[in-house]
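Troubleshooting log. The previous structure file for this entry was overwritten by mistake, so regenerating from the original sequence record. Sequence copied from the archived sheet and checked twice against the printout by T.R.
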Amino acid sequence: MTGMADPHIQLPIAFDVVATFVSAVAGALVAVRRHYDYVGVFALAFVTGLGGALLRDGIFLQGGPPAAVRDNRILLAILAATLLGIGINQLGRRLSQLVLILDAIGLGVYAVVGADRAYAAGIGHLGAALVGVVNAVGGGMLRDVLTREEPVIFKPGQLYGLAAALASGCFIALLTGFDLDAESAAVAAASTGVLLRLLAVRYDWKTRPLYWKDWQEHGGSVG
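Regenerated output below.
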């Protein structure tokens, strides 16, 4: 069964704004940590906050101009995130932990937003869950590429892509299988994804590379 476009299942724009804001703050903090100037901080906040949404709208949905340029609140969220990232630079050593927390929140919320937008556009259940994952990890992936880091999703690590897949998959399941309203399903599914990601970081739950023994022989390095 494929999902049909239904305006009643679409989440309010507030979910987009929240996901954009927290993801953009994480990007801004990375830029601050790298000693970028104001333009650089804004640029990295923009890419991190909106990268996944632009991939969602431009590649999968193709329903006209992206949501980011149709609603001023989304761009204002990027600007606010940039200013906040600059303002909390004094946190110093706690900056990395804050980035992880914000990144986890953005991951979970964006996963359900992407799945919701895709399902409402008529994409089937599995396809909508996939779009949710792309929406969730796209900004962080582009951020890592631009800062010359290997994207987290490509490496053995602490359940990054799996947390996004759990959130988007749970959202579709709760929405279609349990007949929950969109907002309740979104809160439950996003919370599940965020919790899994934070627990994985806290207790160091990790995936393993395909060739585990070879990886160990090379000192745990990738590449």
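The CA atoms of residues 14 and 33 lie 29 Å apart. Archived copy saved in two places this time.
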